[in-house]
Amino acid sequence: MPVKATDKKTGKKKLVIVESPAKGKTIAGYLGEGFEVTASMGHIRDLPQPSDLPAELKKTAVGKFAVDLDKDFEPYYVVSADKKKKVAELKAALKDADELYLATDGDREGEAIAWHLLQVLKPKVPVHRLTFPEITREAIQRALLEMRDVDVAMVDAQETRRILDRLYGYEISPVLWRKVARGLSAGRVQSVATRLVVERERERMAFRPASYWDLIGTFATEAAEKFKARLVSVDGARVATGKDFTDRGELKSKTAVHLDEASAVSLAAGLESAAFTVRSVDTKPYTRRPAAPFTTSTLQQEAGRKLRFSSRVTMQVAQRLYENGYITYMRTDSPALSDQAINAARRQASELYGPEYVPDARRIYKGKSKNAQEAHEAIRPAGDSFRTPAQVASSLRGDEFKLYELIWKRTVASQMADAKGSTASVRLGAVSTDGRDAEFSASGTVITFRGFMAAYEEGRDAVREDDDAEGTEGARLPVLKAEDRLTGTDIAANGHETSPPPRFTEASLVKMLEELGIGRPSTYAATISTIMDRGYVTSRGQALVPSWIAFSVVRLLEEHFTDYVDYDFTAELEEDLDRIARGEAGRVEWLNQFYYGDRVETGLHTIVNDLGEIDAKAINSIEIADGIVLRVGKFGPYLERPLPADAPEGTEPERANVPEDLAPDELTAAKAIELMETAAPEERVLGTDPETGRTIVARNGRYGPYVIELIPEPTEEELANQPVEYYKNGKPKPPKKPVKVKPRTGSLFKSMSVETVTLEEALKLMKLPRVLGTDAEGNEITVQNGRFGPYLKKGTDSRSIGTEEEIFTITLEQALEIYSQPKQRGGRQAAAPLAEFGTDPVSEKPIVVKDGRFGPYITDGITNITVPRSTAIEELTREQAIELLAEKREKGPAKKPARKRAAPKKAAAKK
Question: Site Interaction with DNA: which residues (predicted)?
Fold first, then answer.
């Protein structure tokens, strides 16, 4: 992507290498003459799969991980196959350059990319390392004045992290394959994130609700001003609220009064004509400070709460904003702002909201982290003077504008004045007709100066149902003083039930990971995507729901790899990587301790080698009800009622499938019993085929109900009576293995079931496809059932027909009539798209989501990309669809295996 040729004055060329073409295009516009900007397209080297190593290395110390365990964990790097062309282009560009500028990102990954470029390109010209927190003219000019060498400590930290994750995944994942299911994976951060989601679901499964009652009343002053208040005490004893109960439904407090329905209704009746008076009024000043500017973590959280963005979408949109010069670097742990940014925020706050909204003193924010990302600023609008949302509205659209506006508001608000006001809490009471003293409470906040709230207010994560469901707190209260008389009306008993702890959302999971010190904000989006792509977690709205297979994985790790899913241990690993990045610890010594241990017993290597026997059945079993166990099987979860010890040999236990859309906490004991009692039979014998004498059965299978003929195994007598064959030397040959006869099968129609299908219907199904006859040219026409319904087939020409029942009734004449009509595209009526997103800005063709063979996919008629498993179609936006199509175009079409060319024929010998 050359941008400038040589400098006309000096005749020199300066080669600048960045990570992405979009970033390079923006940077090129700010550089002077003589610079050529090109992109590495991310990492150019990585650890290969051990199976891709050269044969001579596979049996050495390198063979297991592509890391040499005998040489201080030296990694065996290779240039990725899809990057060889790019490396050749970079080398060619470097040949004519007089200087090399490595302008990759300033975090560990960017530093490692710069180091790899040095190792592969081997430049013989001066090399400069430069980084910039934002892509603006001012930032790039400053970076050119502050160039440095590649930070080897940061490279060591990235390399340690890469090797650590390889050791972790390649040692533990195979254990999951053997004991749970193929294709699963374990990871330093992903396994802990999965454990958090599973533990929250366990809490919900163990939760037992408790009911409690209180009173709500409407009260009026003599001036007829009304407000609501809630009962808080009876005869001086506090009334129990939801916070007074354990998750097992037990009352924790011995001093709280637990009102039931009868006592609450009785008390409400006794207060109908009671004389209420104000007993106390407590007024306090209210002050609230603005939130700090965004870090990567808080941006993901707030974009999830306010914009409903997933972590992955947030980072994708932020990446585009950064590369196009709208915001500063989006991977940072620091909430700090530069002097220029503080001045810009204060100036805009004053201009837009008034000088009184800007405090006299500048606000300084500091982060807790000491790692390398702390060198960056917070995420803020780029430039020494920010562009307002109105100024970028013409150039930004959709998700990009929404995220920019959020970042701008947060940044400006962070430098604004505190919100101020007052809070008032009032206590009022009366004595009921039966002599009980009842006291009610209400509180309210009055904001007298909005301050930063004029620009922005931080969102909240979901919490348990609070005790203020009826709005007795936070409401506006009339002016009250002690001894004021009040009239009580609509005093009613109010029933409540405690709620389980809320499931994690992406925002609250990111917040929890950050609080625990696990992972880094730059990796949270990838971590959440991984646990969703692996099938450990699915989304239900914004809530994250673990799968049953996640329960098995977490249980195995907790029981056999305790440290590796321990929150404190994982946080310590992260801090250790930060220490390496700061040059305070050595890479080799640390990896030795992790893999081999301070003592032999503590290393991952020894733990894996000394695992002993793991009971796979126990790992994949969870008791749901008395006598009912959930098993995680090869084809999904199912319920089973284990057989008694004296059950006859060969007896099959009762089983029932678990519906896919049933969350773990919804599988209660009562639900499990219901599923067992209503389970369809796994198999039903229909009878005997009169032509073959074979038994026909109906079964519920993985892909739906079907019928099959049972092929009996040959008896010992039949095997013994096989004719004997002899070798040429006269010795008898061993008896041949009997040829395995493939049984006939047939899928049931949608209108059929295992319980209702008849032998006659089964025999018809097993004879499909049905031959109708031939057309005038002699082409055979058949009718059969398929994935998309019943259809006719003539050679390669298929045509859909109406219902499955027509398979047995359609005639040759009707089929010929269908074939005489013009064929609809695809051979069948095109299904309506699942979603439509207007015109693609690149291809200028309509973007739609269709249901394909491997699930829903996005297409513009030219490029297709599968909808990620972690994204629900209902939540997919136009901007996401455009982004996914753009990423697929950038990767190019999937390469097909090269076709082997036939060997050239030898020319005939000349006479």
Answer: 43, 161-162, 165, 170, 177, 331, 534
Cβ-proximal residues to 685 (8 Å cutoff; 6+ apart), any chain: 695, 696, 697
> Does the annotation count 329 as an active-site position?
yes
Q: Per residue in 851-910, pLDDT tens? A: 776 678 888 888 888 888 766 666 677 777 887 887 787 666 655 444 444 444 434 443
Q: Dump the DSSP string for 135-158.
A: -SHHHHHHHHHS-B---HHHHHHH
pLDDT at position 353 over 80: yes
Per DSSP, which regions of 221-336 are E strands?
226-234, 237-238, 276-288
Global confidence as pTM: 0.75
> Sign of the C-alpha dihedral, residues 122, 126, 132, 138?
negative
Q: Could you tell me the two tokens for 579?
A: 């220490």
Characterise 861 by phi-psi region: left (phi > 0), alpha (psi -120 to 50), beta (else). Answer: left
Residue of 170, 322, 326, 329 marked catalytic: 329
What pLDDT score does 733 carry?
77
pLDDT of residue 826 exceeding 50, the answer is no
Maximal C-alpha separation, the chain: 131
Phi, psi of 736 (to 5 degrees): -70, 145
Complete DSSP assignment for 677-698: HHPPPSEEEEEE-TTT--EEEE
Amino acid at 595: Y
Alpha-carbon span 23 to 321, nearest angstrom: 10
Over the stretch 432-489, which tens digit does the pLDDT of each residue have? 999 999 999 999 888 899 999 999 988 776 556 544 444 456 667 888 999 999 999 9
Peptide bond before residue 833 is cis, with ω within 30 degrees of 0: no
CA 799 – CA 548 distance, rounded (Å) = 41
CB contact at 8 A, 228 and 475: yes
Considering the chain, what is the average pLDDT of its residues?
87
